[in-house]
Design brief:
The protein has about 220 residues and is of the alpha+beta class. Helices cover about 15% and strands about 30% of the residues. The chain folds into 3 domains: about 30 residues; about 90 residues, Carboxypeptidase-like, regulatory domain (Immunoglobulin-like, Sandwich), CATH 2.60.40; about 70 residues, no CATH class.
């Protein structure tokens, strides 16, 4: 075997390995497009950061939980999380356990839930009910959640779900004469209707010839 053929095989193996890594990373990134997260900081009553506090983010509807701990700056992050309602429980030896919730997590949302722990027995629990939406300060990305009630009661032409996109700010019907107009395509914040990207459960759902819905029988039963 010549040195040239050895180098060629090595280069080929490197190429395929790099390609596999890129595909894996891209797949993981796309799969999280319909997810959200909860972030925050834990302090004591004096304002000092609390390191090593146990943070449990529990899904109020599914019964699942995400466990993490605060870092040296008292910060924590729970991600990725499915869209839904969550309760945040913070525990640390020497402090009262605190529960905050329910917290609404929507598409690409990162609500900030900061917690202040008070000195006491860990068996004592302080519960804080969250009645107002958490201020979104962690990301500039926008998302829109359509409720089941909206999907079933709004008068959609042909029960085509694509019309629900127009509930989001900045979304309008596709430009007249475009090939997406008849399939209820839409324009988002001035972009062309063909520049939309459609995902179904995190998987690409575009037609081969352009960024239009892959199929013609997508309907929602009332």
């Amino acid at each position: 075997m010549t040195p040239h053929s050895k180098c060629s095989r090595k280069a080929l193996r490197t190429f395929w390995l790099s390609l596999a890594v890129l595909v894996f990373i891209a797949g993981a990134a796309w799969a999280q497009k319909d997810m959200g997260s909860i972030v925050g900081t834990v302090r004591d009553s004096s304002g000092a950061m609390v390191q090593g506090a146990k943070v449990t983010v529990s899904d109020a509807d599914r019964g699942t939980a995400f466990n993490t701990t605060t870092n040296q700056s008292g910060e924590y992050a729970a991600n990725p999380l499915h869209i839904g309602r969550y309760n945040v429980t913070v525990e640390k030896e020497g402090f009262r356990k605190q529960v905050v919730g329910p917290i609404e997590v929507n598409v690409q949302a990162r609500p900030e839930v900061n917690v202040t722990l008070n000195v006491g027995q860990i068996a004592e629990t302080v519960t804080v009910s969250s009645q107002t939406p958490q201020l979104e300060t962690e990301t500039s990305e926008l998302g829109q959640v359509v409720s089941a009630r909206q999907a079933t009661t709004l008068p959609l032409n042909g029960r085509n779900f694509a019309q629900l996109a127009q509930l989001a700010p900045g979304v309008s019907p596709a430009e007249p004469g475009s090939r997406t107009e008849t399939s209820f395509g839409f324009s988002s914040n001035g972009a062309r209707a063909l520049q939309n990207n459609y995902l179904l459960d995190g998987v690409d759902n575009n037609a081969n010839l352009g960024d239009v819905l892959n199929g013609s029988a997508y309907v929602i039963q009332p």
